[in-house]
Records
---
Amino acid sequence: MTAPLEHQTLRANGVALHVVTAGRADAPLVILLHGFPEHWGAWRRQIQPLVDAGWRVAVPDQRGYGTSAKPAGVGSYALDTLADDVRGIARALDAPRFSIVGHDWGGMVAWHLAAREATSIERLVILNAPHPATFFSFALTHPLQMLRSSYVGFFQMRWVPEAVLRANDFALLQAALTHSSRAGTFGEDQLAGYRAAWAEPGALRAMLDWYRAMPFAQPCTDEIEAPVRIVWGDADSALETGLVEAALPYCPNAEVVHLPHASHWLHHEEPQKVSSLLLEFLDASNAAALSDRRAQGLHER
């Protein structure tokens, strides 16, 4: 990493969020959203290529994670609220329009925001995340997906999941990463960073409250107007590839790229490939934004 990273606390949607930014302040904005059980560092391999290509990159610890705020109450983690956080980050960074990339839970927030905020989103990239309007119905009609998602039911319990995940220095959470990815994908330094984030006061409760809020979610089912690229690791042990096809009716301007040998953690396992796919797809948005800024600059002169 050669681009300087700025760690800042932004007030967004009424809470304090830790957001890492890199790149020129006047460059087009792309926001990268991590999933469970990660934090902003999940995108460390994608930040530099995006900055080099002319992007301003913002990578938050989403609410409940890392050093961001962890408000009490399941209602604090409603899908609309999580999407409002992202919109608030963009406003705080003076970006009325922006692109968004989301993985896992970050992808579900990105799906919802792109459907709800047609005028704000330039382009959307989804990495192994089901459209929130399709997940439950797909699981109900696909027994294997229901089995793979059984942990979601366990997470609905109070206190017990927190105790189980905290045991033995977060051994189960570490295993959720290392046992479902290629050998060596997550090094000890990275795992140590995650353990520190999980140990933040209130973090485990807040992370699990994302799941506890799921039964009350009201996903936006409007068609997504922005161009969409879905990048899917087909060796995902938690999500079936059929979820890709289930999402397509909600995004008529979509394309799908399958990575046959990548798991759920594709941006860690194949960082160069994923970065290349991001840059290739986002470039049209970047070029348009640069052109608009140049035209505005000429007009101002």
---
Amino acid sequence: MQSKDQLGTTHSFKSVPQRIVSLVPSQTELFVDLGLAGKIVGLTKFCVHPEHLRKSKTVIGGTKNVKIDKIAKLAPDVIIANKEENTQAIVESLARIAPVWVSDIYTVDDSLEFITAMGALFEKQQKADELVKTITQQRAAFADYIKGKQRLKVAYLIWKGPFMVAGEATFIGDLLRENGYENLLQDPKGRYPEVDEALLAQADLILLSSEPYPFKEKDRAQLSDQLGKPVKLVDGEYFSWYGSRLKDAYTYFRQMR
């Protein structure tokens, strides 16, 4: 059987892969929701959903510093990586061990394509189709809900010291558009550029993500006082985790709005 990843690379398999190493938390969560938990043999230290999973699996490092030797000992049939989360050097090194299927996700549509591809690769088409249908229905309902809402110019902060924001050409940027927001960084230099307070002051609303930097209430209050702008803490998993997390994201967005 063959499967083309989102970089256009075609991978060949003698049979349905039975031993999976997942290098990205949101993808690990998807595999569990597709009924593949028993086939996951390795995951990252950031794969926190479901919470119990890491206790029964081998932790192979972080997304940017995987342990190549540990992965080799697991003898995986396939390694699922992501272009943004995992470096090209990691992918090339791991390709000597097993096929490395690389996702490349900038939009919700890319995510739905990925879910469908994983359903086909692991012969979980029915569950994948049901998940895509659920997300698509919730997405459409939210689009109707958001019509007529005030279109605010927002800055979505992912880091502090220095401040860094999510630009337009990111998965976060796509979900900001789906929320009816206008990204302050329409044409940034880099996908997650550094910004200063003077630029942030041009936003109507500032969103502080819970990850990768864990912004807290004290950060929200301090920045709001400094800029005299509304600042809101948001759950970063709903804005940056693609895959099955999207089935709950639109409910969260509705509550947030």
---
Amino acid sequence: MENLKVKAYDLRKDVVDMILAGKGGHIGGDMSVMEILVTLYFKQMKVSPENPQDEDRDRFVLSKGHSVEAYYAVLAARGFLDIQDVIANFSKFGSKYIGHPNNKLPGIEMNSGSLGHGLPVCVGMALAGKKDKKNYRVYTVMGDGELAEGSVWEGFMAAHQYKLDNLCAVVDRNRLQISGNTEDVMGHDDLVQRIASFGWHVIDVKDGNNIDELNAAFEEAKTVNGKPTAIIANTVKGCGSSVMENKANWHHKVPTQEEYQQIIADFEARKEALLYE
């Protein structure tokens, strides 16, 4: 587990290098979602880069598809992609490494990024698994700004109706979106109570950038019968560097060389602290 915590910072560097090379990217959300993706792909999900279309694989959809840079970095670390190829070609004309998930790439189930689609599609995947008597689990990660989409709540209702206990939805609750604070744009009040009222089991992870807490939440989700699970991961947008943390203007931004140097130094300092905890 300690190795994974360090790995999350190494993958953050890959993300920043990718964004610099491609001259664009949603860096803030990449940083907030990193530990969620690392925990899923290295501790929880049953997937295989050698057999990416295995019928019994777990399914994952990055509904907040604009955080694709983090997704590419994790897929590469897990063996589905070549990170040097990704960095060299990200967001270039004609590249397969586009600015939202591309299901022509191994390991990616669905093109996403039109917000509000991930959960409803995952409801279908989970329902298919039930009807086919498969044991795979289905995961999706949504942004908290995305919850303003009505289709999300239709997905919550349908998942409860069909008792999809093989479905787990994660909300990357970093409280910032492109237009500012989520509570100013479209407030969520008590998000735990709101989702629970739709018949879901809800787990509130106080530190959504803590792999130990996330792993425990995913383990709890596996024990729930007869209803789907939502994990509210309270994260920090831009997590990993004081240059970016909790700053809405880092939703989509390319760091300057000076900012890049400071960001990488911050990552190294966080890694060092982890090693001596």
---
Amino acid sequence: MKIVKCILSILLVVIFAQCGKDDEKVDDLIKVSVFQTMWEGTLKDSQGKEYAVRLLFDYESFGTFLYKTNNDDSFDDEQGFKYNQEGRIIKIFPIYPIDIIVGEWWITKYDGKHMTLTRDPETTFSSTITLTQIIK
């Protein structure tokens, strides 16, 4: 009986050790630094309105946001913002009232060239920014 308990104990340790390694691999895939990069894409807000956007993360904690509501127009406005990246969360703080990008954005997809940011995931207030990197 002691042998059976010993074998079961060893199996449990191995199983839990393997689960921890899988979690680390998933987190490694999500790690990305946005510092000194420029991205273009589309922002879809919680009401379904779409904007063409450009995000430039100029400095370690400061960036520039450009947007337009009609793809044929030039960008309407250029506004600065402060940001803080903690792992796969980018927190954007306003310098001027630019409510459409303020908040915590989760990096939900990243493949080195494309990135998807989601604010308030899995809620009715969810907004999504789908981006392609244009300057690294």
